[in-house]
Each structure stands twice: as C-alpha cells, then as structure tokens.
Inverse folding.
C-alpha cells in the first residue's frame, strides 16, 4: 500500500471538488487496510494517554460530509482503542430552542475538549455556512438583527460568518486546542448505493430518512458551498483535509494516519517527569510498600 502523507489531502490554496478523487487507488485488500488501521489506533491511544498526563493541549477533530459518507463508522473504528474517558463525541443536529437563544457558536463552545482529551464533532460549526446556506430560511429561526426575511441575507453575510469561524478557531488554537478538520468526499453514485442499501437491509432500515433524498436533490449546491467554505477557512493553524470516502475502510485509515502524523508536530507533548523530591525518596517509598 502506498504511504499516506497528510500533504496529499491538505487543502492549501486551491480545491476543485468536481475533480478531486472520491476513491484512492491502492493495492491493498480489506485485511491489509484493517491491519494498518489497527497499528495507528494503538499509537493514537498511547499518545492520548501521554497528552492527558501532559495536560496542555486538547484536540478537536471536525468531521463533515454528506449523508451516508461514513462519519459514524469512522468515529467508531478510529477511536475504539481510546480510553473512553479520553475522547468525547458530539453530534450536532438542528439547534433546539435553548441553543437558538444564543449565537450560533455557543453550543460548540460548550462541547470543546478539556485539556488532555480529544473531542470529535460529528457535523460541526460548519453546518452554519452549509445547511443554512442551502436553506437560508433556517436563519430566520436565529432572530438575527436586520434579517426579517430570506431576501435580506446577502453574500456579505456569509463572508462575515466564515470570518467569524476563522476567528473562533484561531482563538481555540491560541489557547491550546489542536484543530483538525476533515471533509469526507463521497461521490453522488456511492451515496445512491448506500441509500439503497439502507432501504434493502432490514438492520439498517432505521437509518433511512426521506429527508436524505430531499437534500440529495441539492447535491450541486452543497458541493459549491462546501468548496467555498473549505477554501475560505483552510488555515495553517486549523487545516482542512479532503478524504476520498467511497472506500470506507481506506478513509478511516487515512484519517487516523493524518491525525497521528499531525500530532507528531507537537514535540513538546511528553509525559511529565517525577518530582525531584519523589525521585530522591524512591527507595524509601519502595521499602514502605514492600
């Protein structure tokens, strides 16, 4: 299998989702992909233990993608070796009445990771420049000053909102949160196959939603707005990675490998050493315990 390098998937200055591959061609079967993922899972789990002891950073993993792109299964497989107390998963659905009484970023602040822990956002603050852009009528629920009807939502409004998201992430990074963002890039045909599977497989029927079909009709709009949002918010301190997602096993490994490689940039994350007074009295403590 070819070596996975974060730079192959990192968004820097250009992005054309219409030509970006949704499947990575690799010479590997399922068994090899799973074996590769297992190794990275173990390394990430040990890293989180060290990060917890170091207690200086938290890690925010942001996952975005169209319905059926594999976010849930990716979370389950990539983080399953973690200490359950070391990772928290938050799924953001339509904001409830309490959340709508605050600004759109408020509920995301509440779910940020503690130092020493990972937080995974399954759908993220980017829904506020994606779903609401495809359906600007949703913005009316926010009771924003100066916006009484959809026609009052201008292009400048979206520019400002993405600028706010950039400031939000900059603030997080400056205060010790490592931010990594992943877009699971799936083809429209692959989504069709996965939706059909949900309908035909009795165990997965419950996952099917008529709403998925309605959103599928707006596929081109979503691609347009995803591309724009990613380009405008891909920053060195909070990078975006576009992950080919038609092959779920491969996408899980790619995401896990990128997280691992990105964590290696933080050479200061080390397990703390014993206090000097403890070191000086280790023989004494050992005798007491014996």
């Amino acid at each position: 299998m070819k070596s996975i390098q974060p730079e192959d998937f990192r968004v820097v200055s250009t992005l054309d989702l219409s030509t970006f591959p949704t499947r990575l061609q690799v010479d590997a079967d399922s068994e090899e992909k799973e074996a590769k993922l297992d190794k990275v899972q173990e390394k990430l789990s040990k890293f989180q233990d060290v990060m917890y002891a170091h207690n200086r950073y938290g890690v925010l993993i942001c996952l975005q993608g169209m319905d059926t792109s594999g976010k849930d299964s990716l979370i389950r497989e990539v983080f399953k070796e973690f200490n359950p107390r070391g990772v928290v998963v938050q799924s953001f659905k339509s904001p409830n009445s309490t959340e709508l009484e605050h600004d759109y970023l408020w509920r995301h602040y509440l779910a940020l990771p503690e130092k020493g822990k990972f937080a995974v956002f399954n759908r993220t603050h980017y829904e506020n420049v994606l779903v609401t852009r495809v359906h600007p009528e949703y913005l009316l629920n926010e009771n924003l000053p100066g916006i009484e009807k959809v026609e009052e939502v201008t292009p400048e409004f979206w520019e400002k909102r993405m600028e706010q998201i950039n400031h939000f992430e900059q603030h997080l990074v400056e205060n010790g949160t490592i931010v990594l963002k992943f877009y699971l890039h799936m083809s429209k045909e692959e989504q069709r196959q996965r939706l059909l599977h949900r309908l035909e497989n009795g165990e997965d029927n419950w996952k099917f939603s008529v709403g998925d079909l309605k959103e599928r009709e707006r596929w081109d709009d979503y691609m347009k707005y995803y591309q724009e949002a990613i380009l405008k918010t891909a920053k060195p301190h909070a990078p975006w990675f576009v992950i080919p997602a038609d092959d779920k096993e491969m996408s899980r490994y790619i995401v896990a490998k990128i997280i691992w490689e990105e964590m290696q940039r933080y050479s200061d994350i080390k397990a703390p050493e014993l206090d000097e007074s403890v070191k000086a009295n280790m023989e004494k403590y050992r005798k007491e315990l014996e």
